[in-house]
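Table S4 entry, Lipase.
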Amino acid sequence: MLRLFANLVIVLACNFFLIVGNAGTSFAQECPDPTKATNASAQQKQASKRLNRALPSYRARSARYNMALVGDSLVELWQPWIKDSFPTRPVMNLAVAGDTTQNALYRLEGLDLPDFHPADVVVLIGTNNLGAKTAPCAVATGVVAVVSKVRALWPGAHIYALSIPPRGKRYAFYEDVRIPANQLVASSLAEMPGVTFVQMNDDMLRCGKPSDKECSNYKPDHLHFNEGAYKLITSFLAAAGLQL
């Protein structure tokens, strides 16, 4: 009886390691270790016309700026309200519409701002990485890699990493990816010095629970923000300690 039980344990153990071994390669490729993420996985993408126009001034007058924004269209389209959101802060908006975390890594790697030493950096990235076949840990890895790159570029800055906000139909686009990705980012950044993860209030942003009702904080595409959303995001950042 004991011999039979021992044989059964051995068979189960072998099957377990066989399954893990077969799955391990794809899992490792999809969800790499954030501490090993490099620009080798970054993707080149042209900057927007707005950023290309702004960069010469940013470089020439970089010493006067003490804050930066990094991200995708959700950040780039913040531009008309930047002065209202941060009335005492000269802000560089380094975001580019359409950027994934990979694009942002590439952009940060090529950023030529040697005299820029911001006190604070706000990061909002990851919504363009959401998808049906994307694991939450893959999205989280990219966000953490971007934050880590920002930390390497500007070690004296305090980084405020905003959670990926709701979007899409009923403001519930790939919630099974977005929500756990935000949780993974929060736990990963908790031990990183000089970084504050800001979990935005999803229901305040989308005007309540997931619903077919239109929310005035969003444009009709249910992705990009109107002024009301930026006011909310500013309040979340202020509550987290960012000086406006």
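The chain has one domain: 65-240.
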